[in-house]
Every structure is written in structure tokens, then in C-alpha cells.
Specification:
Helix content is about 35%, strand content about 15%. The chain is of the alpha/beta class. Among the domains are: about 170 residues, Beta-lactamase (3-Layer(aba) Sandwich), CATH 3.40.710; about 160 residues, D-tyrosyl-trna(Tyr) Deacylase, Chain: A, CATH 3.50.80. The strands form four sheets. A five-stranded antiparallel sheet has the order 2-1-15-14-13, with helices on both faces. A five-stranded mixed sheet has the order 11-9-5-3-12. β14 and β15 form a beta hairpin. The longest helix has about 35 residues.
């Protein structure tokens, strides 16, 4: 049944004709205007031709003198020569890529190579393959420490004790570690160290401060307190040829890398060793210690008698990267845990490193963080991840702290007399593999920068894993081949020679 309020139309619709008439009139207006313009312009042209025919001399004198013809463009507006800088850069990058491809043919599936120029990818050979990184692994903790702690961060070592009365401390004097990895005594012999520490903090100055405070007698013991960190002094996965030899023991309190005057090697407890050294320094300043030395925690309510600050983190990192200081790397890892959640543990520090790298969009597939130094063969990294970190921190304190080819640290005897000397900077990495016929393989790695003659910065990572690649007769050809190719950049024509003509 139809709704009586709705009218169903079954015949032809009829619309008024007036709107169509108006529309046609509107459309004819521009046509008429255009026609009038054409008629006017034709008339003007006829008049001009007539004037020229009637008085050619007058017309000639009234015409402006012809201007000199504009030179014809030798280089078209859309010609590639209009972008000489981009053209030269692309050519240089392609030549470097070709040169690196030749080198990559000698790098097997267990190793990787990645190169970029000012962040532009040039070469990525096995870039996502997980490899054992050795000490280039330190770049991860160095970069994150600068981000989380800041380049001006300092580590404070302090002394607490009951207030002295007439120069006498009635109780224990406690040396409290603040995570300073470069705490040393002035007289400790370091001439046999392959890479002596620098940018150090003198424990002697703290002993001077205690003496200056008027202390003459301690009727108790000198105790070492490293409770800022846990008591794991080495990484469990390190073998016996590494623990307490290449690294450790370390805690929030450590002096001379756990060594003491009159004893060979590193002591088992860094807190005890530091307390022994501090007691010796106090004795040299005429302060009598009745109870010897040992390990113990300070009473938080006890006043601070004296304190000593380290150099800023940027200087500490320069020492760590230049000498490949393993203890410094591991202590920084625990300090990151303290800064993040008050937990001076490996697990706490690794969580901070992992989270920070991911926040930077560093590709973490294949990356496994076990320690900070790279001494564990259980660590895994990729060339892609390390290259991303190098690109992130380029131009900052970490880059400035790297060893220089032929000049400093672990590169002092490398690239001497070549085009790379004084120019190439890198964190090195080395792990041996006795016996060579068993896994894990040996490692030789190089990761850093080279500033080119044109002012560009090349970022590069090469990590070689192989049975005997760390042998002195195995890795140098790879390093030299890499360095020569980097040093040759840019190898193409100057941008001015490919510009517009």
C-alpha cells in the first residue's frame, strides 16, 4: 500500500527551461571576449605593417638596437652536470663499493664487512651475520655510557671514619669505592704493562687529604668497601686463561687493577688489595694503623673525612678505548646498572645497554650481550649493529677517544708508514683460539673512522672470525687492504671538472 504522503511519478519529468538559457549565456561570454581580442590583435598587426611600409627609414630609426644574442647553453637545464657535487660523490661511492667488493671476496661466511660514507651505505657484506666481536664489543658500552651517564660524569672515591679526636680515629677508617676504574698509586710499577693506563686518579692524593685532616692514628683497621657493586669479580664464562689475567678482579673499589706492591699478579679480592695499598700510603705519611687492613662496609651515618674525583667520563673512555682496558669496560657496565635501577650488576648494566641501543634503532637481530669487554666468546655482534653505533656517535667523545693508526694504543704499531698513519682511527679486537682446530674461532676486528681529504667521514667495521686469523701472519693483509681502499677515497674527478659547461 502506497504512502499517501509520497507522490510516485510515472510519466516524463518536466523541468523549467530558464536555467538552461542562463547557462548557455554564461558559456558564450568568454567565447565572445576571445573573438573580440583576436579581431583587435589582427587590427593592431595590420596597422603596424602599414606603418613600416609607409616610412621604412623612420621605422628603422625608431626600432631599438638589437641586443647581442644570448649565448646558447652548452649544458641543458636538466643535464646531470647541473649537480656536480652529487655526481662526484656518487661516482666516488661507487668506486669505493667496487673496491670493497673485491676485498669481500676473501671474507668468508663467518666474517663481515660494512662501510658507509657520512652515513651513506657503501658496502654490506654479511652485515647481518652474528659473529664473535672481541674487543670492538666495547663500543656498545662506551656509546651507552656517554648517553646515560654523560661525558662529564665523574667517579668519587671517599674515606669515612669516626671524627678524629686529637688526631686519633677511634674505630675503622673505610675506603669507599665509587666505581673509579683508573684509581692507582703513584709508585706502582707499570713499566711492564703493554699499554699503561693514563688519565688515572691518584690514590696518593686521597692519602694526602687524610693526613691534612689531622689524622695521626687509626685505632682500628683500614677497610675496603666496594659494596656499590655486587661481588662478582669476573665474568663466569671467561676461561682460566682470561679471568684474573686479562681482566678482573674488579669491584666498585679497585686500585692498580687489583695489584699491590710486593706481590705478583692480581689479587683475588680487589677491595682487600685496595685497602692494603691505602694502608701502606697512610703509613708512609706517618699515620699509625693499629688493626691492619681488610674488607668491610661503611656505616652510612659515619661522616666523610675526604674524597677524590676521577677525570670526566670522556677521559676515562679515551683510556679504555685506546688501551682496550677490560676492567674499565666491565666496571662501566655495572655503573650503568646503578644509574638505572641502583643495581651494580652485569645483568642490570646489560639491560640498559640493550634498551638504549634499541631506542637508537640499532639493528639488534643476532646481537648477544654477555659482558662489556668482549672477552667472552659467547658475545655476538653484527657489522650492521656496530656500524649503526659508529654513525650515531660520530664526532663525539667516543670517536675522539679511539686509537690512531701508527700513533697510539693498540694501533701504535699498525699501518706505520702507510697512507693510513695518523688518519685512520679504530677500536681493535683480538681473541686467540688455542687449539686452532676447535671452536670457537679466533677473532681479529677493526671498527672506526677515516676522515678523507675532502672532509667526509668513512665509518667501517670489519670482523674476521677464523681458526688462526689472529696470528701475526694472517690478519695484516686484510687490514692493509681495507685501509688502502679507505685512504684512496675520494678517487674520482673534482666536482668542478664535472660541472656545467
Amino acid at each position: 500500500m502506497n504512502d499517501p504522503g509520497v507522490r510516485i511519478v510515472t510519466g516524463k519529468s518536466r523541468y523549467p527551461a530558464a536555467p538552461f538559457v542562463v547557462l548557455i549565456a554564461i558559456l558564450l561570454i568568454p567565447v565572445a571576449a576571445l573573438t573580440a581580442l583576436l579581431v583587435w590583435s589582427d587590427g593592431q598587426a595590420d596597422e603596424h605593417r602599414a606603418a613600416l611600409a609607409a616610412s621604412p627609414d623612420d621605422a628603422a630609426t625608431s626600432r631599438p638596437a638589437p641586443s647581442s644574442a644570448a649565448p646558447e647553453l652548452a649544458t641543458g637545464l636538466l643535464n646531470y652536470r647541473r649537480m656536480p657535487n652529487q655526481l662526484a660523490t656518487a661516482g666516488d661511492d661507487n668506486r669505493l663499493s667496487d673496491a670493497m667488493s673485491e676485498l669481500a671476496t676473501f671474507i668468508d661466511e663467518r666474517s663481515c664487512l660494512s662501510v658507509s660514507v657520512d652515513g651513506r651505505p657503501v658496502t654490506a657484506h654479511n652485515a647481518d651475520v652474528a659473529v664473535i666481536p672481541a674487543s670492538v664489543h666495547k663500543l656498545f658500552v662506551a656509546a651507552v655510557a656517554l648517553e646515560v651517564l654523560g661525558p662529564d660524569h665523574v667517579f668519587t672515591t671517599s674515606v669515612s671514619a669516626p671524627p678524629a679526636v686529637d688526631g686519633v680515629v677511634d674505630g675503622d677508617l673505610v675506603l669507599i669505592g665509587g666505581g673509579d676504574p683508573l684509581l692507582v698509586t703513584d709508585g706502582y710499577p707499570t713499566q711492564d704493562d703493554r699499554y699503561p693506563e693514563f688519565n688515572t686518579t691518584s690514590l696518593d692524593r686521597l692519602a694526602d687529604a687524610v693526613a691534612a685532616a689531622g689524622v695521626t692514628t687509626v685505632q682500628g683497621s683500614v677497610l675496603g668497601d666496594g659494596s656499590r657493586y655486587d661481588d662478582e669479580f669476573v665474568i663466569p664464562s671467561w676461561g682460566p686463561d682470561i679471568a684474573y689475567i686479562e681482566a678482573g678482579p674488579y669491584d666498585a673499589l679497585v686500585a692498580n687493577d687489583g695489584r699491590v706492591v710486593g706481590r705478583s699478579g692480581r689479587q683475588r679480592d680487589p677491595n682487600d688489595a685496595a685497602a692494603r695499598e691505602f694502608a701502606r700510603l697512610l703509613g708512609e705519611r706517618g699515620i699509625r694503623i693499629s688493626g691492619g687492613f681488610g674488607v668491610g662496609a661503611a656505616d652510612p651515618a659515619q661522616p666523610v673525612l675526604a674524597s677524590l674525583e676521577s677525570q670526566p667520563l670522556s677521559a676515562v673512555l679515551a683510556e679504555m678505548l685506546t688501551t682496550s682496558d677490560n676492567d674499565t669496560a666491565e666496571m662501566l657496565l655495572k655503573e650503568l646498572g646503578v644509574a638505572d635501577a641502583g643495581a651494580g650488576t652485569v645483568a642490570g648494566g646489560l639491560a640498559v645497554v640493550d634498551r638504549t641501543l634499541r631506542s637508537w634503532a640499532v639493528p639488534m637481530d643476532g646481537v648477544r650481550l654477555v659482558d662489556a669487554s668482549g672477552l667472552s666468546s659467547d658475545n655476538r655482534a653484527t657489522c650492521a649493529a656496530l656500524l649503526a653505533v659508529l654513525q650515531r656517535v660520530e664526532g663525539g667523545p667516543m670517536a675522539a677517544g679511539l686509537p690512531v693508526a701508527g700513533r697510539t694504543g693498540t694501533l701504535a704499531d699498525q699501518f706505520v708508514g702507510t697512507a693510513m698513519e695518523g688518519r685512520l682511527t679504530a677500536k681493535t679486537g683480538t681473541l686467540g683460539n688455542p687449539p686452532v682446530d676447535l671452536d670457537p674461532p679466533a677473532v681479529k676486528a677493526l671498527a672506526g673512522y677515516l676522515v678523507t681529504s675532502a672532509g667526509s667521514t668513512i665509518e667501517y667495521v670489519m670482523i674476521l672470525n677464523g681458526p688462526d686469523i689472529a696470528n701475526p701472519d694472517k690478519y695484516p693483509p686484510y687490514w692493509l687492504a681495507l685501509g688502502e681502499r679507505l685512504a684512496a677515497y675520494p678517487s674520482g674527478p673534482d666536482p668542478s671538472s664535472v660541472g656545467p659547461r
